[in-house]
Write a structure and sequence with these properties.
Chain A is α+β, with helices and mostly antiparallel strands and 154 residues long. In chain A, 43% of the residues lie in helices and 13% in strands. Chain A has a five-stranded mixed beta sheet, with no helix packed on it. Chain B has 419 residues and is an alpha/beta fold. Classes of the chains: A alpha+beta (154), B alpha/beta (419). Bound molecules: flavin mononucleotide, iron/sulfur cluster and FE2/S2 (inorganic) cluster (FES).
Chain lengths: 154, 419
């Protein structure tokens, strides 16, 4: 169930578009934020509010990489391994996350602290390697500072 | 050169409307509203501005198609998807100079008769989203956005739409589909978006940097503007340079600055004094160039003559330590992931190319593999629905064209000597 405040937020979003279907992407974002991931209840809520069938909402959501189709950890590490980051050592960083936290791409640590998502360029190539932790950018990563940074996320 | 796109961004409060106005912002808007919409379109045409999203299409020409249709409403969409790997040039405008983009969009909307605008912003830019929303709010408060801009009766409403991590949504027809709440799969053309775009209404899609050039064109006039940079392709250009450099970053320089100047004069040369090996000059799908081919003016007209393209202006610089088979493999892994799956040559071809490149890189390449790569690539080229598929084929063809030895060496020795 969504709170009244969230329903109001969704209705406001709906007003930004000429029709309800067009508001589907932002509505899915809101549902994901509220339910933590795109659970059956999340699709139910989106479908109720926009009048878009659940199967359609799911079909659209699975096309996009930033929607979460399973429960995630408390902190989501989005680490870029595309070329500008790769040539400056991003792959070694992936290994370090595995060594230090047992964290592998597309998985969550058993304590639910971190999930790791490998990204395709996050627009921080000039300060590569880079990652987004939740919505915070961290640039110029090294084998040492990546652990220091992540230690501040509990 | 005086900075126009990145003007004032050293000011920590540059995203604030008052700081923007103190630096001369929103003056062009006032000037534009004293002009007839058709005269603005004419000015943009005469300026020679070409779209900065990658294709370099003349902006004034696109606009004149859009004003020729009488269907209403019209939409102006700003492409802020910035997904081409290596590209981070729109980000400083979005985060540090959002009012320049907003002012450009209001003027453009007025010129085009578009009453609604959306910024399609990539989901990976959460900070830019907050900054833009705040800037739009400020602009409404000053009466620059809304039902009657500057009290003159013209209306323009502007919204931000967050993407959700799909590179193909940067392609303008896929962007439109996505903004309609669908999967981002490209549409067949014609009809062109200028005639039937968003919800089948006339729609202009322009890149962030393109729209951000408009206030300056209005301010100084098309004649002065067209004297900046290359004669056939004028204006200031944002080059975003990454990789093994002393000073990577975003540089605003005259269009047509040579690749050598960008790397050695502006970015301080190769990091640690190492040797340059190769450059990808225009984002990952632009043809790679070897170190001895960098004396080329970086603009839309000259780069094709030098065997590559300007693309998004994303320069990726690689020193001698880089394995180019691996870079090519990583690029194809990306393109396979981002292929929208609509057409078979791209959906299947990108997977095969990635697969073959992977086995070469990991020491399991077969003697016939280089030819096999070229044959798969030529079966894709020209046979795909949108440029992503062609781009994938061209990446492989160009890496092999310039660095065939490196592929053959991997196969012969059954290993990569760079690991
Ligand atoms: C696969 C693909 C990805 C693209 N990504 C972007 C992008 O991220 N940003 C952009 O402005 N244009 C992108 N484009 C180009 C757009 O289709 C379109 O040409 C551009 O937004 C038009 O604006 P402009 O004329 O101002 O350049 C992409 C094109 C293709 C084929
Ligand atoms: S070329 Fe690739 S990305 Fe473009 S429409 Fe075909 S499958 Fe989709
Ligand atoms: S390649 Fe990693 S941020 Fe662009």
């Amino acid at each position: 169930m969504l709170s009244e405040a969230v329903i109001k937020e969704l209705e406001e979003i709906r007003q930004r578009y000429p029709n309800a279907r067009a508001a589907l992407l932002p509505a899915i974002y809101i549902a994901q934020r509220e339910f933590g991931w795109l659970s059956p209840e999340a699709y139910e809520a989106v479908s109720d509010i926009l009048g878009v069938p659940k199967t359609i909402a799911r079909g659209v959501a699975t096309f996009y990489a930033m929607y979460k189709h399973k429960p995630m950890g408390r902190n989501i590490v989005h680490l870029c391994t595309n070329v500008s980051c790769m040539i400056l050592g991003a792959e070694r960083l992936v290994d370090i996350l595995k060594e230090r936290y047992g964290l592998e791409p597309n998985s969550t640590t058993p304590d639910g602290r971190f999930s790791l998502v490998i990204m395709e360029c996050i627009g921080a190539c000039g300060t590569a390697p880079a990652m987004l932790v939740n919505t915070d950018f961290h640039d110029n990563l090294t084998q040492e500072n990546i652990i220091q940074i992540l230690e501040s996320y509990k | 050169m005086e900075k126009t796109l990145l003007k004032n961004i050293e000011n920590p409060k540059s995203a604030d409307i008052n700081e923007y106005m103190n630096a001369g912002g929103y003056k062009a808007l006032r000037k534009a509203f004293e002009m007839k919409p058709a005269d603005i379109v004419e000015e943009v045409k005469r300026s020679g501005l070409r779209g900065r999203g990658g294709a370099g299409f003349p902006t004034g020409m696109k606009w004149s198609f859009a004003v020729a249709t009488t269907d209403r409403p019209k939409y102006l969409l700003c492409n802020a998807d910035e997904g081409e790997p290596g590209t981070f040039k729109d980000r400083p405008i979005l985060e540090k100079n959002p009012h320049l983009l907003i002012e450009g969009m209001i003027i453009s909307g007025y010129a085009l008769g578009a009453e609604y605008g959306y910024v399609y912003l990539r989901g990976e830019y959460p900070e830019a989203n907050d900054i833009l929303l705040n800037a739009i709010k400020q602009s409404y408060e000053k009466g620059y956005l809304g039902e009657s801009i500057l009290g003159k009766g013209a209306r323009f409403h502007l919204y931000v739409h967050q993407g959700a991590g799909a590179y193909i949504c940067g392609e303008e027809t896929a962007l439109i589909e996505s903004l309609e709440g669908k999967k981002g799969q490209p549409r067949i053309r014609p009809p062109f978006p200028v005639n039937r775009g968003y919800l089948q209404k006339p729609t202009v899609v322009n890149n962030v940097e393109t729209l951000s050039n408009v206030p300056y064109i209005i301010e100084v006039g098309s004649e002065a503007y067209s004297k900046i940079g290359s004669p056939d392709c004028p204006g200031p250009k944002l080059y975003c340079v990454s990789g093994h450099l002393e000073k990577p970053g975003v540089y605003e320089l005259p269009m047509g600055t040579t690749l050598r100047d960008i790397i050695y004069t502006h970015c301080g040369g190769i990091k640690g004094g190492k040797q340059l090996k190769a450059v990808i000059p225009g984002g990952i799908t632009a043809p790679v160039l070897p170190a001895d081919k960098i004396d080329c003016p970086m603009d839309f007209v000259n780069m094709p003559k030098h065997g590559s393209m300007l693309g998004s202006g994303a320069v990726i610089v690689m020193d001698e330590s880089v394995c180019l088979v691996k870079v090519c493999y990583r690029a194809l892994k990306f393109l396979e992931h981002e292929s929208c799956g609509k057409c078979t040559p791209c959906r299947e071809g990108t997977g095969w190319l990635r697969n073959i490149l992977g086995r070469i890189e990991y020491g399991e390449g077969r003697e016939e593999d280089v030819e096999l790569l070229l044959s798969v690539a030529s079966n894709m080229m020209g046979k795909t629905f949108c440029p992503l598929g062609d781009g994938a084929a061209s990446v492989v063809q160009n890496f092999i064209k310039h660095f065939r030895n490196e592929f053959e060496e991997h196969i012969k020795n059954a290993k990569c000597r760079f690991r």
